[in-house]
């Protein structure tokens, strides 16, 4: 290392030594440069000038989500497709794909389903065995409070 001639060179050399010390203690390139507002590339150059070869920082692989976490993510994405309201008595209209009959449709596990069926199954945490009927008459509505399971498909069971 050269001897600094000016005060500015002296301060830069002190800074470079401190950066190298931080890096050798285990800091990343970003972490070593952060106290001095230096970017990763500048820190790399400083280390190379001091004879330190920067190691490659590979990002740690994120752990794969568990099946429960995957399901929760899907559920959140599903509910993002509806206009949810704080009032449980109002309709929650499906905003994504609406079929030609006016019913909301959603994809789940690579298959297309009626959004109201998925909403009922997600909310009640069980698989439906019959028909899902709405009590409000709105075909786009996926509010679980408006949906009821019925073995009979007729309107007499509504509301």
In short:
The chain has 159 residues and is an alpha+beta fold. The chain has 5 helices and 6 strands; from the N terminus they run H-H-H-H-E-E-E-E-H-E-E.
Descriptive account of the structure:
- It is a single chain.
- With 159 residues, the protein is of the alpha+beta class.
- It has 2 domains: 7-49; 67-157, no CATH class.
- Helix content is 35%, strand content 13%.
- The strands form 3 sheets. A two-stranded antiparallel sheet has the order 1-2. Strands 3-4 form a two-stranded antiparallel ribbon. Strands 5-6 form a two-stranded antiparallel sheet.
- β3 (105-108) and β4 form a beta hairpin.
Query: How much helicity do the residues have?
Result: 25-40%
Structural class: alpha+beta
Describe the largest sheet: 2 strands, antiparallel
Order of helices and strands: HHHHEEEEHEE
What is the typical, i.e. mean, pLDDT? Answer: 82
The domain tally reads 2
Number of helices: 5
Query: Which residues sit in consecutive blocks of at least 5 with pLDDT less than 50?
Result: none
Question: In angstroms, what separates the terminal alpha carbons?
Answer: 85 Å
What general outline do the C-alpha atoms trace?
A: rod-shaped
Strands, count: 6
* Beta-strand content bin: 5-15%
Radius of gyration: 30 Å
Strand order in the sheet with the most strands: 1-2
